[in-house]
């Protein structure tokens, strides 16, 4: 009974998967289909009943001539970043199903895991290195932070979170603690 149910599930999954695989993709269409940025179409201006040149007096200079709009540099078309296109391009030269499985596992599991791990470690290291520069820095951000805390009448922390080894009060408190703990009167 369990084998028949498992077999039916596997067959359904295979049917859905094989229905979506294009066995012979076209390099011109399937790898990088054209987008709106791929082609350039000229602008066609329709004629109007009254042209702007007729409404301008002969002694007036139009503002468009005095202050022409700046031309922006032509940008290249946006790259196609859809997953399917990059996936088809990466499995294009795969030698067999094992290579396709490896490429899929690499693209879907290993690289995102590695990217997330590196990003988390970088953020953790950045927070660790900048833990004490929040208020002591001379950057614009530190100045704005100190100004904002002053505007709101908040107490700006001056001491660091960890006690310093040069703190006289801490040294006296530790000395008093050890004297109280290890004096001969306390041991009797």
Description:
- This protein has helices at residues 2-19, 52-55, 63-66, 83-90, 97-129, 133-136, 140-151, 168-182, 184-187.
- By secondary structure, it is mainly α.
- Helices cover 54% and strands 0% of the residues.
- The longest helix has 33 residues, at 97-129.
- It is flat, with a radius of gyration of 36 Å.
- The mean pLDDT is 76.
The share of residues in extended strands comes to: under 5%
Rg calculated over all Cα atoms: 36 Å
Instruction: Output the number of helix runs.
Output: 9
SSE order, one letter for each helix or strand = HHHHHHHHH
**Care to count the β-strands?**
0
Specify the structural class: mainly alpha
State the end-to-end distance: 80 Å
